[in-house]
Batch of 2 targets.
Target 1
Amino acid sequence: DGGITQSPKYLFRKEGQNVTLSCEQNLNHDAMYWYRQDPGQGLRLIYYSQIVNDFQKGDIAEGYSVSREKKESFPLTVTSAQKNPTAFYLCASSRRQGIQETQYFGPGTRLLVL
Amino acid sequence: KQEVTQIPAALSVPEGENLVLNCSFTDSAIYNLQWFRQDPGKGLTSLLLIQSSQREQTSGRLNASLDKSSGRSTLYIAASQPGDSATYLCAVRLGNAGNMLTFGGGTRLMVKP
């Protein structure tokens, strides 16, 4: 079964703690993306990666970090510098940048602050 | 900066009704526009993608139109069903922004049996 998986489904963060959200895809896609969705709002781009070992900041990168050591994986770390991390986080992938390619989305991770 | 707006934010209709969801964008230099469906607590599923050179796309009971010059798109749902209940998001891709999408806030649709 090809697709994008995100884990965990729910994640709780304590004050001052860094947490990492997992995103894995077996679609052989080059590009991967992280979005944040707040209640009743659209998605905002946090980071994206066009190829392994390369990534770029999106519109709201502050307080987040990513890595892209493998084509299949694009983990997102929510650092303690992110003061309002409670949101629904969505990972997506697509075959290539700059081409008419649909982005495929994972099921999301809901992050809550304790 | 591109801004995408969707009106209404929420809509409730009886089953069987035809309905129209609206999406507007401020920068007409788009590469394409896409409509997505999102079920509660889930990821997004692509419904229709319209290239900037196209006027409309159809898939089953769904029809999406694009008027680039006026910065508008509509998603028409014919003979609505309770299973259509979800949030519908539109997203635009600027011509010079690679594969980056700018999303609207979504329209939350409820179809009552």
Note: The longest strand of chain A covers residues 43-51.
Target 2
Amino acid sequence: IQLTQSPSLLSASVGDRVTLSCKGSQNINNYLAWYQQKLGEAPKLLIYKTNSLQTGIPSRFSGSGSGTDYTLTISSLHSEDLATYYCYQYNNGLTFGSGTKLEIK
Amino acid sequence: EVQLQQSGPEVGRPGSSVKISCKASGYTFTDYVMNWVKQSPGQGLEWIGWIDPEYGSTDYAEKFKKKATLTADTSSSTAYIQLSSLTSEDTATYFCARDSGSPYYVMDAWGQGASVTVSS
């Protein structure tokens, strides 16, 4: 399964509501996770099984979707959310999306 | 606290091999599958493969079947990846990442990454 993330680059202001998209080439059956990777760091798990928040992750992060289309939403952007975000499917093989780089205006 | 401590940066000559380690602590090593992920400079994440430390069973992405060999030493709770026949395409950071297991099977803990530079 191939994953297409959009946009590849997103610039937003602190306090904005931000939506990142991930589309699969086939049905993912909700086996979709989101990772955050800050510059020079390892990826961090944010969301698993489409909408389950990993322990310790702020509640401003949420996930939704079904079938082939999934979304990560940050309800109110914080400056520390500057990072690249990857979606990841584990329904059929293991695949990462190409990433969305989130910049702070 | 789950921790995955990876070995330091490696420099390898073209055609040679390198071996990276990932020492696990804070959990029972044999209870969880270990994944390996590649990140080329400025690029995204690629899954290389996984190893089940309890049984030594492995699975690899097709692209890495002839490139990577995954092993594990249960006595030291350490997973290894060996990269062979190095080329410039292997210059990257390599992460180990624990699989959370049933029912979610996501990578829930990551090592800090180990850089490999292929240079003559």
Note: Chain A touches chain B at residues 31, 33, 35, 37, 41-45, 48-49, 52, 54, 86, 88, 90, 93-99 (CB under 8 Å).
